[in-house]
Every structure is written in structure tokens, then in C-alpha cells.
UniProtKB/TrEMBL annotation:
2Fe-2S ferredoxin-type domain location: 2-94
CDD domains found in the cross-reference section: fer2
This protein's name: Ferredoxin
Transmembrane segments: none
Species of the source: Paenibacillus cineris
Pfam families: Fer2
Keywords: FAD, Flavoprotein
SUPFAM superfamilies linked: 2Fe-2S ferredoxin-like
Alphabetized PROSITE patterns for the sequence: 2FE2S_FER_2
Lineage, highest ranks first: Bacteria, Bacillati, Bacillota, Bacilli, Bacillales
Domain of life: Bacteria
Amino acid sequence: MPTIQVEGREAIRAEEGQKLVLALEDNGVDILHRCGGNARCTTCRVEVLEGDAGPVGEAEAAILTTKGIHEPNVRLSCQIRVHNDLTVRPVMTVSDSGMDPGKRPVD
């Protein structure tokens, strides 16, 4: 089981191949996911501080480009399937934004 270290929290465990956004949400991490995990809104962005989050897919690359997000270590947690240990920092949170987190992403 991969370990996810979330900046400022204790490490959590993720099932092999689980979407990162679900691992975060299921472990009480404060993160938005307004589009339900469909790579449309970018609210579930995380900064990958350490580890290999895998390749950026076509849908993720397209929305990041459309939204003007070009930092190579900023990824959409709804598009990352966890296969390795990672250290991440959520970019947008429910508590900072005051928004509803959004519909639970599908696996």
C-alpha cells in the first residue's frame, strides 16, 4: 500500500491504483473536487512535493493548459492513480475557499 504524506498531517495509506482525491477525502484531508473527479474544474489540484505521480493524461493536460496552470509539479488529484509513495500539498481547500467540496468523485 502506498503512503501519502500530506503536508502538515500524518501520513495516510492508499489502495494501489486508488484515485488520489479519494484517498485524501476518505482520510479527512481538506480538499475540493467540484466537478466530481472529471478533470474539468481543477479545484482538486495538489502540488506534488516528492514521489512519482505518474504521467499526465490527455484530459488533465488539456484542462491545466486551458486554466493557465503550467507548473510541472501541480497535478489534479482526481487524475492521479496512486502507485507510489507521494508527498503532496492540497492547493485549494474547503476551509480556505468556503465552498462546498463538491460531489464525491467516482472511482
